Backbone:
């Protein structure tokens, strides 16, 4: 009987554990999560969107795994009676200058197997009557779901089948153990394993180094700040409204998402966080920030995107600016319609040359597999990511 360990209790880690249990039912499986609950960080702090795969280069892991992962996610939700909706979304061009980019996005979507439709302004307002658009794309495959509920169901399945689930267990190091490895935790335990998969999100590169691996990229945390619309204003948004992405900016831009619970989320922006788990400006960690600022890639990224970064920073400091960005999409929104909501932090892998790692990044060293870059759409793709990782373990 093999002994397998998964580090990380977000949706990717739990999906990997679920796949290990499904394909290796006789193995002893341990899941380690440093927090006291599942889905505490990226999984539990996002818009809850089931992504379609619209934005990703054809042939990339993101494009392929997003599509297959979304289907597997929906099948799991159906089996576990988790609420979800495949409601579609609009991507809207708010000026004629954005229309060529909208057309290019439609071509990419079709190359990725999506049934995208280009819409006139009038047709767009049949979906979203208050939207500002000169043209739009309708992407019917996009949906919404409660990702923490998915994680709770995964944990329940794992526990029911005999997995050893350990909350509050932080990995601090490792010792050699023949062809395997011994994982050391902050509580003083040593867990011997034949195979380990690390899905540690914001801590992924740190955990990799603790286990003796030198990752090819470093995690730089970007905080995404959200608002919710007050109930009267929420009636202005039926579903999901996104801007056309700016090709000079590595993030999608603020958007509007009606969640599965019925409220409307607005955001996120993207600003450098001052701690790996820096969910507010007051959360500053010199231990986290020092290495980020000493990393050459951080400054190369800043030189490349300083104009966009300054815009994001100004929007972070001003609800009026945030609301103005949203009014490009829905002009009837007012500053007072925005109510603060919990922020998220995106774990973005950055290379020394300042390039953002665009695709999922998975590396292996001996008996350990490291998931080093799994930002959006990783929650959507989690079941497909898990299948690929576990298939590679068998090889």
Residues:
């Amino acid at each position: 009987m093999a002994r397998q360990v998964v580090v990380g209790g977000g949706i990717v880690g739990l999906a990997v554990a679920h796949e290990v249990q499904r394909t290796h039912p006789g193995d002893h499986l341990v899941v380690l999560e440093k927090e006291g609950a599942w889905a505490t960080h990226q999984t539990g702090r996002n818009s809850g969107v089931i992504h379609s795969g619209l934005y990703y280069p054809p042939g990339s892991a993101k494009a392929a795994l997003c599509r297959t992962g979304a289907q597997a996610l929906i099948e799991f939700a159906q089996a576990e009676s988790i609420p979800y909706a495949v409601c579609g979304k609009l991507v809207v061009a708010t000026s004629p200058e954005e229309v060529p980019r909208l057309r290019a996005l439609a071509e990419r979507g079709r190359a990725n197997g999506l049934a995208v439709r280009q819409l006139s302004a009038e047709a767009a307002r049949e979906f979203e009557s208050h939207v500002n658009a000169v043209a739009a794309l309708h992407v019917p495959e996009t949906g919404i779901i409660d990702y923490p509920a998915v994680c709770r169901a995964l944990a329940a399945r794992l526990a029911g089948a005999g997995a050893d689930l350990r909350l509050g267990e932080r990995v601090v190091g490792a010792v050699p153990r023949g062809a395997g490895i011994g994982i050391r935790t902050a509580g003083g335990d040593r867990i011997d394993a034949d195979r380990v998969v690390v899905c540690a999100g914001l801590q992924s590169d740190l955990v990799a180094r603790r286990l003796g691996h030198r990752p090819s990229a470093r995690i730089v945390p970007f905080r995404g700040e959200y608002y919710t619309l007050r109930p009267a204003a929420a009636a202005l948004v039926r579903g999901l409204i996104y801007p056309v992405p700016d090709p000079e900016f590595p993030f999608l831009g603020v958007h509007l998402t009606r969640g599965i619970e019925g409220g409307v989320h607005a955001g996120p922006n993207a600003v450098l966080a001052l701690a790996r788990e820096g969910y507010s400006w007051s959360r500053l960690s010199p231990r986290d920030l020092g290495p980020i600022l000493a990393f050459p890639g951080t400054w190369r990224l800043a030189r490349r995107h300083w104009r966009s970064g300054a815009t994001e920073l100004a929007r972070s400091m001003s609800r009026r600016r945030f609301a103005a960005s949203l009014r490009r999409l829905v002009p009837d929104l007012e500053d007072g319609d925005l109510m603060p909501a919990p922020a998220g932090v995106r774990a973005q892998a950055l290379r020394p040359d300042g390039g953002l790692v665009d695709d999922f990044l998975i590396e292996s060293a001996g008996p350990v597999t490291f998931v080093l870059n799994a930002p959006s759409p990783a929650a959507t793709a989690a079941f497909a990511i898990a299948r690929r990782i576990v298939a590679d373990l068998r090889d």
User: Anything to note?
Assistant: The mean pLDDT is 96. The chain has three domains: 3-48+148-211+359-394, 89-140, 218-356.
